[in-house]
Amino acid sequence: MAVYRRGYQRYQGPLSSRGSRLLVLPKFAWERLMQTRLVVIIFVLAMFWPVACAVFVYLSNHTELLQGFGPQAAQLLKIDGNFFVVFMNTQSMFAIVLSAFAGPSLIAPDLANGALPLYFSRPLSRTEYILSRMLVLIGVLSPITWVPGVLLFLMQSSMAGGTWFSENWQLGVGIFFGFLLYILLVSLVAMASSAYVRWRIIAGALVLGVFFILAGAAELVNEVLRVEWASALNPVRAMNQIWRSMLGAEPIAGPEAYQCFIVILVMTGLLLAVLQRKLRPVEVVS
Amino acid sequence: MTPVIELKDLRVKLGRREILQGISCRLGVSGAGKAIGLLGPNGAGKSTLILSLLGFHKASGGSARILGLDCHAQAREVKARVGYMPENEAFIADMSAVRFLRIMGELSGLPPRVALERAHEVLFHVGLGEARYRPLGTYSLGMKQMAKLAQAIMHGPELVILDEPTNGLDPAARARMLKLVVEMKQEHGMSIVLCSHLLRDVEEVCDEVVILKDGRIAHHANLEEERRANRRFVELEVSGDDRNFAASLREHGIEGVSEGGGRWRIVLPPELELDVIWRLVGRENLEVNRLTHRRDTLEEIFLKAVGHIKRTAGEAAKPVEEVTADGRL
Question: What is the ipTM of this complex?
Answer without folding.
Answer: 0.84
